[in-house]
Specification:
Strand 8 and strand 9 (141-151) form a beta hairpin. The chain has helices at 2-17, 108-120, 180-186, 188-197, and strands at 23-25, 32-34, 38-41, 47-49, 53-60, 63-75, 83-89, 129-138, 141-151, 157-167, 170-179, 199-200. The chain is globular and about 40 Å long. It contains four helices and twelve strands; from the N terminus they run H-E-E-E-E-E-E-E-H-E-E-E-E-H-H-E. 21% of the residues lie in helices and 39% in strands. The strands form two sheets. Strands 1, 4, 5, 6, 7, 8, 9, 10 and 11 form a nine-stranded antiparallel β-sheet that branches. A three-stranded antiparallel β-sheet has the order 2-3-12. The protein is an alpha+beta fold.
Length: 219
């Protein structure tokens, strides 16, 4: 009996220390995914990030920087084929590569223009084309709907649909990226349902987190 208790104790320690998987399968019991500042409903049978990413590493003017954010990823067949991302950026680093902040009084067309400029400054998206820029709403807030396209190194057309808005808590985007032939159209309707499911949470009003000590090596 003593050995059994010891084994159970050791197994519990191992389980507690084991890292959580980055991706998790979504079923009808866990389709509503929540971060601190937003929540979404993910299609059943798709996979999504287990927890929000809280930072990204960017090269800005030749120097690596750590930028704080909140971001969840969703995919059906793998991000190499198609991907949905839901991201909240803090006001001071809303458009980090072009060094622009967001303010709550920005109009959606202005925000959309800044976002396109931001994307074009990132590697591989210099030739990004805007196919349409329309007004929209997300969670009742005035927003933009952008449809963009670029060709990857193999000449494959990649289409991106982005919804976005700003308020006093930052800049929010819901993006859908997929090859235009077949995959983009296949899951287009499910993406629109995910956009409609977006809800801002009370945690969005909390003060932005501080940059971790280790991240200061990149500032």
């Amino acid at each position: 009996m003593k050995r059994l208790f010891t084994l159970i104790f050791v197994l519990s320690l191992v389980t507690a220390c084991a890292p959580r998987p980055y991706w998790t399968l979504t079923d009808d019991m866990n389709r509503v995914v929540k971060s601190k500042s937003f929540q979404i409903t993910v299609p059943e049978g798709w996979v999504r990030t287990t927890e929000p990413d809280t930072w990204e590493r960017l090269n800005i003017d030749g120097k690596d920087r750590i930028i704080l954010l909140e971001s969840m990823g969703v995919t059906r067949d793998g991000i190499g084929i198609h991907a949905i991302s839901v991201t909240r950026r803090y006001p001071g680093t809303a458009f980090p590569t072009i060094k622009k902040k967001s303010t709550p009084n920005m109009l959606p067309p202005e925000v959309a223009d800044l976002y396109v400029s931001e994307l074009r400054k990132r590697s591989g998206l210099e030739r990004l084309k805007v196919l349409s820029n329309k007004p929209a709403k997300i969670d009742g807030k005035p927003a933009f709907q952008l449809v963009m396209q670029y060709k990857n190194d193999d000449g494959l057309r990649i289409r991106i649909m982005s919804y976005g808005f700003v308020d006093k808590t930052g800049f929010y985007t819901v993006n859908y990226r997929a090859p235009y032939l077949y995959y983009y159209k296949r899951d287009y309707d499910k993406f629109l349902k995910l956009v409609k499911s977006f809800k801002q949470r009370k945690g969005a009003s909390a003060p932005p987190p501080k940059l971790p000590v280790w991240a200061k090596l990149f500032t």
